[in-house]
């Protein structure tokens, strides 16, 4: 019947009924929204006089008067479509070095300290030693400078000690040199102690989309108006937008406003021309200050107002500045410890709710769990030590004297263990150290340095009873906050001067080196030059007119110069029995300018643009030298044993190792080498035989204050070759060369397989 057919139809449509209803509802809402958009946009197509309205999708919404909408200037993105003119040749786009430069980001905080000739060597020095290293950028401004400027202080002298003139010139200088680089500008006096971390935290919580004049608000002298100025003694904060608006009016303020106090003059200028008054509270953030009374004892100040202060004034002398810094540092440290305890308590409470339960709680609470090795090769070994000796020495010897940083580390960790024990058991027990029985330590990259100490202690009760007992304690020195070390700016456009020393044994490998040099530098027009250093044995040097052992190499160089007309490859001939790396560099150094960037290469080095750029970036004049650790491929006869060599990209850096015994490659500036070499010459006097036991690495390590950057370099891959080790060199250099050859044969598994196959062959 009809009813049955209808029921069957509804049963068939029931699974798709929600989909149909959803589509219908969605289409209806879309049509309704489109009609609203069209009706609302008709008025925007034409302006009041029939002019075309703003384009759709404009980044900055405009108000009815055509000016940008308030509060939206910097937060709406504008998409610029890429267009390339087909009639113009393609030109590579030059990108900025850092993404924050390209995106127009600014640094957060700039600090200006107003000082004077009388206090430059006293209070200004105290400011520099206490808080300057906490601020990202800090400059000192004075009218007249003293004869000697304290070390490590960046000083700007305006040539006039008048307070108003000093303030005018300071604000003008800040706008001219830093106005486009920073979001916030903090101005303080040298008799002000400011909590640097608190000031940085304050600016992190303030919005930059507002004109800010923040400090300790004070009434104008003799004025009854509501406007306020920021007291200069307690420092004040100015936003970038306010500074940009204030700068055009500075000359008018200097000519029209009369005032004795520079901070009052600046406040009057901001109020009269911008209509902005000083505030002590903004966006929920308070600028707390504290005024010091005479003969104040910072160690005894317990007021909440003092502990919450961002700035303290007046500071009468250097000693008081240091005492304030010590007191506030202790306050910050206590707060940090209390916060750690609160976080640990929260972690303990939440751990019981996790799937692992309390068993998943690691020690110490809040620190990463220890590294869990997946195989025996990943096990981190422990280093054994006592109070006098270390049994895992850097030079590989089984036992050495505990000294330097290691001795200080052990002493500090023992003292910390005793302090923790006494804090836990006092007043019931008081511990004192008798002896360190055993000490173990290891570095866990996931959490930090771990220690296990077996201590022989003397425990004394409250009644005076003493007893000697042994106790094992475990301690962890966790990895702290990662800090980015500021480095000088370098570019990738620096010319690299390659230096290739060659002996008779290296002649067979020169062809491959020159081919790679031509393909990766000459063909790509990289800014790199090559100098060859022919090292003749005295016997070969006598026969050079009849038989030149480097004749083939010179012929190959001639072919390269014919192929590349603009390229010249000079060579230098040296006669010696002992090819000392330092003596060879002495010869090359004298023939090049002091600003030359050297890359000391070996004949097995395969030059490529990737590494040359890293050589440029990792080598900084008067700052850092670079000693890359190349990747050495294993002997294919042992690794593949007759099978086809793996050549796919997935096998890159697989069948080989990074040769940590080789120091043949190095990147450094000639000026840095000459400076270190001069110190070496003054140390060894005329004992040139000492140079035979040294490499360039040793010269920089012992006779320069530069950073020695030694890191694995995947861009330097060398084919396997058995190096010839010169027995005339020092014992250490010869031993290092032999070890490099031995470890470069194959991995342990490959050597074991080769021995196994050899034993099978011998048994049959």
TrEMBL record:
The gene is Chpf2. Its EC number is 2.4.1.-. This is Hexosyltransferase. Its main location: Golgi. Residues 1-18 form the signal peptide. It comes from Aramus guarauna. It is found in: Golgi apparatus, Golgi stack membrane. One of its GO terms (molecular function) is N-acetylgalactosaminyl-proteoglycan 3-beta-glucuronosyltransferase activity. Residues 49-58 have a biased composition (Low complexity). PANTHER family: CHONDROITIN SULFATE GLUCURONYLTRANSFERASE, CHONDROITIN SYNTHASE. It is an enzyme of class 2 (transferase).
